[in-house]
Amino acid sequence: MVTASTLMETRSPAPNLRPTLPAAEAGRPAAPAAPAGQILIDIDHVDFFYGASQALHDINLKVEDKKVTAFIGPSGCGKSTLLRCLNRMNDLIDGTRVARGSIKIRGIDIHRRDVDVIELRKRVGMVFQKSNPFPKSIYENITYGLRLQGVSNKARLDEIVEKSLRGAALWDEVKDRLHASGLGLSGGQQQRLCIARAIAVEPEVILMDEPCSALDPIATAKVEELIHELKTRFTIVIVTHNMQQAARCSDKTAFFYMGRLIEYADTQTIFMNPGNPQTEAYVSGRFG
Amino acid sequence: MSTELSAGHVFQARVTLAQRWEQACFWLFRGATYLVLLCGAVVFLNIFVKGSRTVFQPTAPFINTAFFTESPESLHVFVWQGKKMEMGDREHRAFVAQHPEAAKIKTEDYVYSAGGIFPCIVGTVLLVVGSMTIALVLGVSAAVYLNEYARDGTFIRFVRLAILNLAGVPSIVFGLFGFGMFVLFFDWNVSLIAGWFTLAFMVLPVIITASEESLKAVPKGFREGSLALGATKWQTIRKNVLPYALPGILTSSILGIARVAGETAPIMFTAAYVVRDKLPWDVDKFSDFFFQGVMALPYHIYVVSSKIPQNEYTERVQYGTAFVFLLIVALIATTSIVLRNHLRNRYKW
Question: For domain B118-346, which architecture applies?
Answer without folding.
Answer: Orthogonal Bundle (1.10)
